[in-house]
Amino acid sequence: MALAAGASLLVWWFLGQMVAARVTRRAVAGWREWTREFLVLGAGLWLGAVGSVLLAALALGVL
Questions:
Q1: What is the pLDDT of residues 7-55, one digit of tens each?
Q2: Could you tell me the residue range of the domain that residue 19 belongs to?
Q3: Among 39, 61, 60, 42, which residue's Cα sits nearest to residue 50?
Q4: In 3D, which of 24, 19, 17, 11 has the Cα closest to residue 39?
Q5: Model pLDDT, residue 26
Q6: Per-residue confidence (pLDDT) for residue 35, from 0 to 100
Q7: Are 52 and 29 contacting, i.e. CB atoms less than 8 angstroms apart?
Q8: DSSP-derived 3-state class of residue 25
Q9: Which of 10, 19, 42, 58 could make an S-S bridge to 37, C-beta 3.0–4.6 Å?
Q10: How many CB atoms lie within 10 A of CB 21?
């Protein structure tokens, strides 16, 4: 359980760092721009996670 929590924390921290790097390329950046980028990348992360769980369930014959 602790390993999963640590891995999740690391993934979300890395995502935040990527967003910060993308946003600060602009001359003027604020929390609004950071939030917009974070939501886009976070949604992709969630869709990938849900898709992989659904694919695994299909492969195991659960769905």
A1: 999 999 999 999 999 999 888 889 999 999 999 999 999 999 999 999 9
A2: 2-60
A3: 42
A4: 19
A5: 84
A6: 94
A7: no
A8: coil
A9: 19
A10: 10
